[in-house]
Amino acid sequence: MRISVIGCGYLGAVHAACMAKLGHEVVAIDVDERKITELQAGRSHFFEPGLPELLNEVLQTGRLKFSSDIADARGSQVHFLCVGTPQRKGEYAADLRYVDAAFSSLVDSLEAGNLVVGKSRLSRWEPQRGSPMTWRNGSPRQASPGTLSSCGKVSPSRTR
Ligand SMILES: NC(=O)c1ccc[n+]([C@@H]2O[C@H](COP(=O)([O-])OP(=O)(O)OC[C@H]3O[C@@H](n4cnc5c(N)ncnc54)[C@H](O)[C@@H]3O)[C@@H](O)[C@H]2O)c1
To answer: For the domain bounded by 1-160, which CATH number is listed?
Structure first.
């Protein structure tokens, strides 16, 4: 299966490498070009034992690619959102600006039937967070393993 991973921090970079190890075709995307350059060269910008070795192994297979262009998500059947959700200063709430920005940039690359999976940590993934795309009424929604997020299928009527 071809998948995209949006956000290549601690969560996304490891997730992308593991999905490629499992045999999927993975494009991993981040707005930070410096991180993309490092990861594409098989180097991790954070300490995670075994990650550089895994990166080099799967990069050699050609199943994992890193990109700073969100348009490269087009053609993937499943999109994992792995951007940060830091705590808002002085509040007991998450700052969701990165989630909203990632959704907005991804929407032009979505095709009917694509699955968007929120892996960013939220107490509950609100349906309106998918705006301007919508979740199809009655589509299956489930917890993403390891997070409290949910996922949904993209409505054919709202994709371009
Ligand atoms: N780190 C963990 O072990 C862990 C575990 C479970 C859940 N989470 C959750 O996963 C989410 C990500 O955590 P993290 O530790 O990887 O954060 P992080 O800050 O290390 O990585 C987030 C990445 O998203 C990128 N990004 C921001 N906006 C973007 C956009 N519009 N398009 C593409 N990339 C964008 C940033 O450049 C950054 O590289 C958070 O919600 C966190 O709570 C993290």
So the answer is: 3.40.50.720
Q: Could you tell me which residues come within 8 angstroms of residue 134 by beta carbon, excluding any fewer than 6 positions away?
A: 127, 155, 158
Residue 155 confidence (pLDDT) above 60: no
65 contacts: CB under 8 Å, gap ≥ 6 = 26, 27, 28, 40, 72
Indicate whether 145 pLDDT > 70: no
| Separation of CA 157 and ligand 1 centre (Å) | 30
Q: Which of 30, 36, 122 to mutate to test the pocket of ligand 1 (most atoms within 8 A of CB)?
A: 30
| Local confidence band at 150 (pLDDT 50, 70, 90 cut-offs) | very low
